[in-house]
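Supplementary Text 2. Reproducibility record for the structural model of the 448-residue chain.

All settings were left at their defaults, and a single model was retained for analysis rather than an ensemble. We include the record here because the model underlies the residue-level annotations in Supplementary Table 4.
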Amino acid sequence: MADVETYLKGLKETIIRRDPNQTEFQEAVFAVLDSLKPVLEKHPEYVKTNVLGSLVEPERVIQFRVPWQDDEGNYQVNRGFRVQFNSAIGPYKGGLRLHPSVNLSIVKFLGFEQILKNSLTGLPIGGGKGGSDFNPKGKSDLEIMRFCQSFMTELQKYIGPDMDVPAGDIGVGGREIGYLYGQYKRLNGSQRGILTGKGLEYGGSLARTEATGFGLIYYLDALVKGKNDSLKDKIVKISGAGNVAIYALKKAQEDGAKVVTVSDSNGYVYDPNGIDLETVKQIKEVERGRIKEYADRISTAKYFEGSVWDLDIKYDIALPCATQNEIDEEQAQLIVKSGVKYVAEGANMPSTSKAIAVYKANKVIYGPAKAANAGGVAVSALEMSQNSERLSWTFEDVDDQLQAIMKNIYDISEAANKEYDLGDDLQAGANIAGFEKVAKAMLAQGIV
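Retained model, structure tokens:
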């Protein structure tokens, strides 16, 4: 049997050979593989059975064309994807992303991360992801409806309440989920458990809208309490101004922190008095405007083009909630210089591998995305449970379960740290805790 170093090297070489241009996928997988070395040394059966070789290869990859007609009568064609990555502990579960950057590498990286994230929730859901390079920005409601109907006409062949349950992601909110569900129902009849993130009128869950942002703060709260600290009076930078950022802002303020930034793809606003939640919600949720409008309405705020992480101020906590790879090595060094004690990720893989290395080298406590932003998929799984029971739970019931799930994610990550003597490496702890559950299920089910 090969030693662990040789085994991991060979696995990486296989991935590079098979998928040489999938840089995002490679980055995500290699970060996990490197952190699993102590587990493989303790459990040689994982090497002998090559369970990682199966884990990094999707069970199924689906790519299809999505033809649709724009308002001028022109015919457009986009690419659709669904990666059904791992079903060892339950049906595939993961969002659909509509964004011009979507390609197979991005969908595979997100799907792979989803395996471990879903495992960490403790709920019976496997990992998957999907989407399209369609850009909903600037499109009319009718154009988005026609696209979603075409997309679901093909996707519906491969999903089901006990097989694969998609949800929303970037570019897919309540409007898009509604159009997608309507088309699925038209083709297959009413099956409420086929999608999550639905409207409350047709099987959605209370607290789903707030879940990822609230969950981020519940995880962060458990983390800081684990370090004998609290969120009260902490200065916080948040990137993004979408669903995750807005509800992280709300919950952080409720816990006594002061959030001083939010951003969008054009730039960011800095308000030293603390960001006004209602103004952000009005601009982004009601008017669907740009965040620069905040500075026009709040006299204490200033708007800057570029990345929020380039703003040189003193603060305590960084919460990246925008998109992948938004923080590079140089920005991570500025984060450290600014006195930051904690980084917790609300977006998927917002920090590059070099940025993460900077955090760790400077003793910044780092909460990785697969742990810190698992609240959304956790409540999606709770929505599946409600659909199966044909019941609707109260907001308080769902929120209480979300808090317990996020605290448990921190606890099991910390327990893995202690078992394998990893110090404060919550990234490795989360990878190990998520992996061990999936690996045991895969081995129990044979070579499948």
